[in-house]
Write a structure and sequence with these properties.
CATH architecture of the largest domain: Orthogonal Bundle
Radius of gyration: 31 Å
Strand order of the largest sheet: 5-6-7
Distance between the termini: 95 Å
Number of strands: 9
Structural class: mainly alpha
């Protein structure tokens, strides 16, 4: 028999390991176990977790997502060294990149200034974005390729949001691709009190592609598409008219809004930096997850992040990082399916325990200094704007931010008028009810006790049989004592006679 190549042999061994892990896992799950024990058994299966980790590391390595600065430092720079290069070298490197893209990667003083910004002045931000690219770039590239668009569009998200899906500008532009509310809605993105599609990496990327295509149909030039994406087609059209109907970005450059005059140079600079990071002693900071560390599930019921975190033993921070579009740590159900992203090693746990997790609706309780238990709950408040009130004063009154008020009410500016109703979500401390106690009219002496009617207050989940067993009474006797009570459908809080006076 011919020998297998080393690479195939490794994959074969990993596959055998995976199959053995599944077999071992199936044999350890006992359907008679309690819910918590069943969940824990799956969580403690280290072999399956090891396989997920091996596969993620293998994929990250193949895609070139490495985070060891020592191995990436091919030029042996000192740790704190910030290399600088002549413009001629930067221009030559950009020419090589320009040959592989339909974008016009022109080098000039403005582009040089932005390269200096990313490579020198904002190094921590650049290295963080480089790390986050291991989470978002495989997704972007897949969608851009599917939509037939230049892959270099992926760099635009760094210019827009530094790859922060919850980024929000002062003007209200939100998400990785910084959609304004109206533009997002025009491109199929919904915003509700619970969810903002602009912060969903997949939905927002498809919407961005749709917008790129519509702009290209107008201008037939990718660099003008960038300009129009930033300042809107109206402003680009004005610049074209004022330039004498030129259709080249650098020729209409003086007539564009100030921000847009820096937008395309920034895009060109990011193209350069992301292709020549080691030359500038820049290395990616490892994010919480990479693209190959998580998987997706379809959810068709309402579900709180607290339920997931408690059942799967993962943090709320991890859930928020992977699911940025859910604004209230809550997946709603409105007749549509929703997506939940989880660490790969927890996906199997969720699938095997899905019904239990949906039912496991127990809020995370806290304890006051006096021993009373409470939870934080969001209350929806409707505030009608009075004359003289402004958004900042209303936000201060309820202890929330102005940005939150704008987001909850889909406001594009801080201008409000008397009579307008605003939705406000306010977290309030809600105390949990204490365990009901048996109510009796017992007195201290036996003689008095014999002349007292004794009651029992029904608790959640009680049955007549449970109560009879607890009190040492025959079920038939209990029914006789409570003839006017529907003993088949006991309700918490109802009183049952245990014994009668006399």
């Amino acid at each position: 028999m011919d020998k297998l190549p080393l690479g195939r042999l490794r994959l074969f061994v990993i596959a055998l390991f995976f199959l053995n892990s599944i077999s071992s896992l199936a044999s350890t799950i006992d359907t008679n176990l309690t819910d918590s024990a069943r969940i824990k058994l799956v969580q403690d299966n280290l072999e399956l977790k090891a396989f997920d980790s091996l596969w993620s590391n293998h994929c990250n390595s193949l895609m070139g997502f490495l985070f060891d600065s020592t191995s990436l430092n091919t030029y042996d720079y000192p740790f704190d060294s910030i290399p600088k290069f002549d413009d001629a070298i930067l221009e030559e490197r950009l020419k090589l990149l320009d040959g592989n893209t339909p974008f016009d990667l022109t080098f000039n003083n403005r582009v040089s200034a932005f390269i200096n910004l990313y490579a020198v002045k904002r190094r921590p931000l650049t290295e963080k974005a480089m790390g986050l690219s291991s989470l978002y770039f495989p997704l972007f590239e897949s969608i851009l390729d599917e939509e037939g668009l230049p892959l270099e569009f992926k760099y635009l998200a760094i210019v827009e949001s530094a790859l922060n899906p919850t980024a929000r500008s002062r003007a209200g532009a939100t998400g990785l691709w910084q959609f304004m509310y109206a533009t997002g809605k025009m491109n199929g993105l919904e915003v509700t009190s619970y969810q903002d599609d602009r912060m969903d990496p997949i939905k927002a990327t498809y919407a961005a592609c749709k917008y790129f295509k519509s702009l290209y149909k107008i201008y037939g030039d990718w660099t003008l598409v960038l300009a129009a994406y930033n300042c809107g087609p109206g402003n680009v059209n004005k610049a074209i008219r004022r330039s004498g109907y030129q259709r080249d970005y650098w020729k209409i450059f003086p007539y564009l809004p100030r921000e847009t005059r820096g937008y395309v140079p920034a895009f060109i600079a990011v193209n350069y930096i992301m292709n020549y990071p080691a030359e500038h002693n820049l290395y990616p900071l490892k994010p919480m997850f990479t693209f190959f560390d998580f998987d997706t599930l379809i959810i068709n019921k309402k579900l709180k992040f607290e339920q997931i975190a408690s059942a799967l033993n993962i943090t709320m921070e991890e859930l928020r990082f992977l699911n940025p579009s859910y604004k209230k740590d809550f997946i709603p159900y409105n007749g549509k399916n929703h997506v939940l992203r989880l660490p790969k090693e927890q996906v199997g746990v969720f699938v095997l325990n899905e019904d239990l997790i949906y039912e496991y609706d127990q809020p995370l309780a806290h304890t006051d200094s006096d021993g009373r238990k409470y939870v934080w709950e969001d209350k929806e408040i409707i505030h009608r704007v009075s004359s003289g009130q402004y958004l900042g004063s209303i936000a201060s009154r309820y202890g929330v931010s102005t940005n939150s008020l704008m987001e909850w009410n889909n406001l594009r500016s801080t201008t409000i008028h008397p009579g307008k109703e605003l939705i406000i979500y306010k977290s309030e401390k809600v105390y949990l009810p204490e365990k009901p106690k048996v109510e009796t009219a017992q007195t201290e002496t036996d003689s008095q006790k014999n002349n007292t009617t004794i009651y029992y207050q029904v608790q959640e989940g009680d049955t007549l049989w449970d109560i009879a067993k607890q009190k040492g009474i025959d079920v038939a006797a209990l029914k006789e004592l409570n003839k006017n009570l529907d003993t088949q459908k006991l309700k918490p809080g109802e009183k049952i006679v245990i014994s009668k006076a006399g």
